[in-house]
Design goal:
single chain; alpha/beta; 6-stranded mixed beta sheet
């Protein structure tokens, strides 16, 4: 097993262990988008577990160095990417900034908080990638401010084709510590879910926007 696979499985184990990721294929969650989903991910839970927080901090920092080389600054995406980004910046001894979801409506009206300069090479830190839209809004804001975005790192990705396409269209690389396929395989192998549950989880991954609606259920 490669080091990459070991990290993917270890992060999956941690996220399941502390219930940062919950799998409920028979009692699905409803996302803000309206999608029915058998999975709910809240990586902020990792911050409450020092050993896991440290492991993720170190592995994200290593990912930044291995994938993107020398950078000048780390940027977090509000809100869940901020604490992870601070931890990575601390690990690498780099300055930290963060990108708001919208500019402040008072004071200086900042969209980007912290000190930075045009031309600086920056890596963006996120906790989670679904479609990638909110992450790429931050990338666009940093580019418009004159920074060079080397790429983005995150703890976990659902692995949606839409995310791959969106990042490709924006010409932005991204790397994650773990992903949906690794997670559900680990969950099945270690009795977090049954084999029947695994089939439902795989079906969701194939068609997440339609999964769980009555028409789709009739056809599975």
């Amino acid at each position: 097993m490669s080091n990459k696979n070991e990290i993917e499985q270890k992060v999956a184990e941690f996220l399941l262990q502390i219930k940062a990721i919950k799998l409920q294929p028979n009692n699905p969650f409803t996302w803000a988008s309206g999608w029915k989903s058998p999975i709910y991910c809240d990586n902020r839970t990792t911050l409450s577990h020092p050993l896991i927080r440290t492991y993720i901090r170190q592995k994200l920092a290593s990912l930044v160095q291995e994938e993107y080389g020398s950078v000048s600054v780390i940027a977090g995406v509000a809100t869940a990417g901020i604490p992870q980004g601070v931890l990575v910046a601390q690990e690498l001894g780099l300055p930290f900034i963060y990108v708001r979801s919208a500019a402040k409506d008072h004071g200086r009206g900042n969209l980007i908080e912290g000190e930075f300069s045009e031309g600086q090479r920056v890596v963006v830190v996120e906790d989670l990638i679904s479609t990638g839209k909110s992450s790429l809004q931050a990338v666009q804001a940093l580019r418009q401010a004159g920074m060079e975005v080397a790429g983005l790192v995150a703890i976990f990705s659902y692995g949606f084709d839409a995310a791959v396409e969106n990042f490709k269209n924006e010409k932005c690389r991204f790397s994650t510590l773990s992903n949906y396929n690794t997670l559900i395989e680990y969950a099945a192998d270690h009795s977090f879910v049954s084999n029947d549950d695994l089939k439902l989880l795989q079906q969701w991954r194939e068609n997440p926007s339609e999964w769980g609606n009555p028409v789709h259920q009739d056809n599975v």
